[in-house]
Amino acid sequence: MFDFDNAIECNCDLGEGLAIGCDSVAWVDINQDTIFIFRNDRLGTFKTQFKPSVIFSIEKDELVFGSDAGICYLDINSGDERLLNLENFNHNRQKYRSNDGGFCADHQLLGFMHRNDPVKNLGFVYLVKDESFCLIDDSLHIPNSFIEIEPSKILISDSLKGQIWLYQLDDTGNLVKKTLWTQLDKGIAPDGGCLVGDFVFVALWDGSSIAVFDKSGKLIKNLPLPVIRPTNCKYDAVRSQLWVTSAREGLSKEQLSRYPLSGNTFGYNLELGS
Questions:
Q1: How distant is the alpha carbon of residue 146 from its chain centre?
Q2: Which of 66, 128, 170, 173 has the smallest set of CB atoms within 10 Å of its CB?
Q3: Contacts (Cβ under 8 Å, ≥6 apart) of 204
Q4: What is the mean pLDDT of the chain?
C-alpha cells in the first residue's frame, strides 16, 4: 500500500478537480456542488450556485473553476461567484455537465459529458481562445485527465473506453493531430492525472491505484491506494507531495466497508525519483 501522510476527511460523493496553490490545495465534490480549500491545516468549504468539476487555479484571494455553466471565478474572502462571459458556449446544461479540464499551449480546456447516458451520447472538449469556446473534439464519451506532457501536447482520456489519447495543438490552440497513447485493461477507467518529472501519473477509477507511465505510454508501475475509486492526482513540487481525490459514488455497502476511506482526499510525500 502507498502510505499516505495526510488524510483529509471530506466524504466526497465525487471528489475531483484538484489544483495546487502556493499555500493551499483545492478540489471539488461534483455531486454536492462544493469546493474545498485546504490551507494552513484547515479545511474550508464553499457551496456554489454552479456545478464545479475542475479547479483551474487557486491564488490567495481568488479561485478559477470549470463548471456546467463554463469558466467561473470565486472570491475566497467573500464567497462571491462570477461567470466569465464567453461566446459560442451552446451546449444543453440539462443534458451535459463539465467533467475535467486543464491547460495546453496556455489555453484552458474543458470537457463535457452527458449527465444520464454517456454510453449512448458523446461528450465535447472545448478550448478557450479569444474569449470564446472553440470545439476541438466531439468523439469522446467521458473526457478526462487533461495532462500537458510537453508544450502544445496534452493527454485526454475517454474514461468509458479506457483510452488515453495524445493531442497535439499548434500555437493558436488548433488541433493538429490526435493519436492513441495507451489502452487500459477492460473495467479500469483512466481518470484525472498529472505530470511528475518525466512520468505521467493517472488515477484509475475502479483500479484502487495510480498508474505511472513514461511519456511514450509505457506502464512503469502502479501505486496501490486505500480507495477503490481514486479520481484525480496533482503534484506539489514545492513540498514534494502528491495529492489524490476519491469518490464514494456508486459503491455498495460491502465496498464501502472494505474501503472506508473512500471519498476522502490524501497527501503523500513523494520525492522525485522515489
A1: 7
A2: 170
A3: 184, 188, 189, 190, 191, 210, 211, 222, 230
A4: 94
CB of 117 closer than 8 Å to CB of 73:
no
| In contact, 206 and 229? CB cutoff 8 Å | yes
pTM: 0.95
Per-residue CA distances from 35 to 15, 38, 116, 144, 254 (Å)? 9, 10, 23, 19, 28
Hey, what's the torsion of the CAs at 186, 187, 191, 196, to 10 degrees? -60
Domains in the chain and their CATH numbers? Answer: 6-269 (2.120.10.30)
pLDDT tens digits, residue range 123-169?
Answer: 999 999 888 999 999 999 999 999 999 999 999 999 999 999 999 99
Distant-in-sequence, close-in-space partners of 241: CB < 8 Å, separation ≥ 6? 5, 6, 235, 267, 268, 269, 270
